[in-house]
């Protein structure tokens, strides 16, 4: 009994010391937030869906809230005003990224997780020149059109279709061509799982999905320094093994390209200059980029671009199969603008406001990146509070999209809210309206937004124009757990009934 009492006494003393130490070291003038326990902080309040738990906590503590994740203080912004402060007004001081173990091992010196430096500015410049300038978007338009046509050719008719699979093939083939001029899946090999290209696509998809999962998995070492120091779960080692797997996939491709570049045939004569060429040109010229950076940057495109893109189109389709009336409205618009004798083209998009409204509404309800993760560079004041350098500031994009004060009936899928006569007419997702930030805003705005926006709208328009989709009875809209991108827990499967003449499907 004495021993038990002694143990209890020691435990109380330890907690008291921790609380005292926390009281002394905690910055005083910070936004309100839940009580923080020693070591774990308020982690026990964060459920399996952190974006939801934190949106709920913000209802109690306010749109500027301090939450201790273990020993790391994170300030959450969950209103247009607070978001604006960090990603526009004080953007220059909050454009750094919180440090995390997984990306620092898996994607070292990349664009997404690095601070803004001359290195990251150079990477962003190369990225934009290869992906998003209007010249490049025009030059790659046919490539994307071919892949949309391929998607239509390969979706089976009058049967239940795994919609996510077709969106994956679409994104995989488009990005693999933009990055390395390789189409990883040949049209004939769609059902043939033995061909080399199919295996490669599967590998690429698997590594990309695993990368998204690893980066999105809660890692205690990111929040409790002692756990990281001792690496008890061997996480650091697992990350290194995974990086080796990523390396061996791209090294062969880079090697072949280096040999091609050494040979007498100039790449230009063989094909358009792609992202890999652009990175290697840069690596040839100066020391800032070496082959390790080239490898990282290739994976970064897949990590940042694939899952987000696939998830966005899949969520839109998943909401639409639950809303047949909305699907019919979209199809009526498509019939009026495109007709029924050809497939949708990217150039139709400016004339398809209802499709754009569907994309906005889907990204409002299901932002694939639910938080904008930023970090303070220099101690400053915001809304009268003291924010120390190194403090993480997260904008809860998911929470913003569900604010009843901005979006009446916020949990209902209603694209009409963005159209004339609707409650949110005029709001767009390009970083100027702080009510709707699926791509972020300011210096760290999604570098791929123009291509992503175009691809999501064209994918949804193409699928709706070509088929009427009916959901199975057990269809639900649950979010998956433990991944960086917010995807559906169960891939969308729906019955596809063709609605166009047969020749359109064989173009
Ligand atoms: C619908 C699809 C997509 C969504 C919703 C999305 C969303 C985002 C968001 C929210 C950020 C962080 C912004 C911030 O911190 O303020 C981001 C960053 C980024 N995205 Fe996207 N993204 C999408 C597709 C893509 C695609 C297709 C690519 C590449 C081809 C891409 C490349 C990047 C890069 C490189 C960054 C890092 C930019 C930086 O930190 O400076 N994204 N994206």
Can you put this structure into words, describing what you see?
Helix 9 (196-216) crosses helix 14 (291-321). The chain has a single domain (1-505), classed as Orthogonal Bundle (Cytochrome p450). The protein has helices at 2-25, 50-61, 80-89, 101-106, 118-131, 134-139, 141-154, 163-180, 196-216, 225-230, 235-262, 267-270, 275-285, 291-321, 324-338, 353-365, 397-401, 449-466, 502-505, and strands at residues 64-69, 72-77, 159-162, 371-375, 380-382, 385-387, 392-396, 467-470, 493-498. The chain is 51% helix and 8% strand. The chain is globular and about 70 Å long. Strands 1-2-7-4 form a four-stranded mixed beta sheet. A three-stranded antiparallel beta sheet has the order 3-9-8. The protein has a two-stranded antiparallel ribbon with strand order 5-6. The chain binds protoporphyrin IX containing FE. The site of protoporphyrin IX containing FE (HEM) has 24 residues, from helix 14 and helix 18.
Topology:
Layout: H1 2-25, H2 50-61, E1 64-69, E2 72-77, H3 80-89, H4 101-106, H5 118-131, H6 134-139, H7 141-154, E3 159-162, H8 163-180, H9 196-216, H10 225-230, H11 235-262, H12 267-270, H13 275-285, H14 291-321, H15 324-338, H16 353-365, E4 371-375, E5 380-382, E6 385-387, E7 392-396, H17 397-401, H18 449-466, E8 467-470, E9 493-498, H19 502-505
Bound molecules: protoporphyrin IX containing FE.
């Amino acid at each position: 009994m004495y021993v038990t009492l002694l143990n209890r006494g020691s435990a109380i003393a330890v907690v008291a010391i921790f609380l005292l130490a926390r009281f002394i070291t905690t910055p005083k003038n910070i936004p309100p937030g839940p009580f923080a326990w020693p070591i774990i902080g308020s982690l026990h309040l964060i459920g399996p869906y952190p974006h939801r738990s934190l949106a709920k906590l913000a209802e109690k503590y306010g749109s500027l809230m301090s939450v201790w994740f273990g020993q790391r203080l994170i300030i959450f912004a969950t209103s247009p005003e607070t978001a604006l402060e960090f990603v526009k007004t004080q953007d220059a001081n909050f454009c750094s990224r919180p440090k995390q173990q997984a990306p620092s091992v898996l994607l070292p010196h990349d664009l997404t997780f690095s601070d803004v430096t001359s290195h990251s500015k150079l990477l962003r410049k190369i990225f934009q020149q290869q992906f998003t300038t209007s010249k490049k978007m025009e030059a790659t338009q046919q490539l994307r059109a071919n892949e949309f046509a391929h998607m239509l050719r390969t979706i089976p008719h009058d049967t239940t279709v795994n919609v996510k699979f077709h969106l994956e093939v679409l994104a995989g083939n488009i990005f693999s061509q933009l990055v390395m001029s390789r189409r990883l899946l040949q049209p004939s090999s769609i059902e043939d799982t033995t061909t080399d290209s199919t295996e490669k696509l599967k590998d690429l998809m698997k590594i990309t999905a695993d990368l998204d999962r690893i980066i999105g998995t809660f890692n205690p070492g990111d929040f409790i320094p002692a756990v990281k120091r001792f690496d008890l779960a061997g996480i650091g080692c697992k990350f290194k093994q995974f990086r080796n797997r990523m390396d061996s996939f791209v090294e062969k491709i880079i090697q072949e390209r280096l040999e091609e570049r050494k040979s007498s045939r100039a790449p230009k004569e063989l094909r358009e200059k792609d992202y890999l060429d652009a990175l290697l040109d840069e690596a040839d010229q100066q020391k800032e980029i070496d082959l390790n950076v080239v490898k990282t940057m290739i994976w970064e495109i897949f990590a940042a671009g694939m899952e987000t893109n696939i998830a966005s189109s899949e969520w839109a389709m998943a909401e639409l199969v639950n809303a047949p009336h909305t699907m019919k409205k979209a199809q009526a618009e498509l019939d009026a603008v495109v007709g029924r004798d050809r497939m949708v083209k990217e150039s139709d998009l400016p004339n398809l406001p209802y499709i754009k409204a569907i994309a906005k509404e889907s990204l409002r309800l299901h932002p694939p990146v639910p938080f904008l993760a930023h970090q303070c560079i220099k101690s400053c004041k915001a809304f009268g509070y003291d924010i120390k350098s190194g403090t993480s500031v997260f904008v809860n994009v998911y929470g913003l999209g569900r604010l009843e004060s901005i979006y009446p009936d916020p949990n209902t899928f209603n694209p009409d809210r963005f159209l004339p006569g609707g409650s949110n007419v005029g709001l767009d997702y390009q970083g100027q309206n702080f009510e709707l930030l699926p791509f972020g805003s300011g210096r760290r705005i999604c570098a791929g937004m123009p291509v992503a926006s175009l691809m999501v709208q064209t994918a949804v328009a193409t699928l709706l124009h070509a088929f009427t989709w009916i959901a199975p009875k057990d269809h639900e809209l649950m979010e998956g757990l433990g991944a960086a991108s917010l995807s559906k827990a169960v891939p969308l499967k729906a019955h596809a009934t063709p609605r166009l003449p047969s020749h359109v499907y064989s173009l």
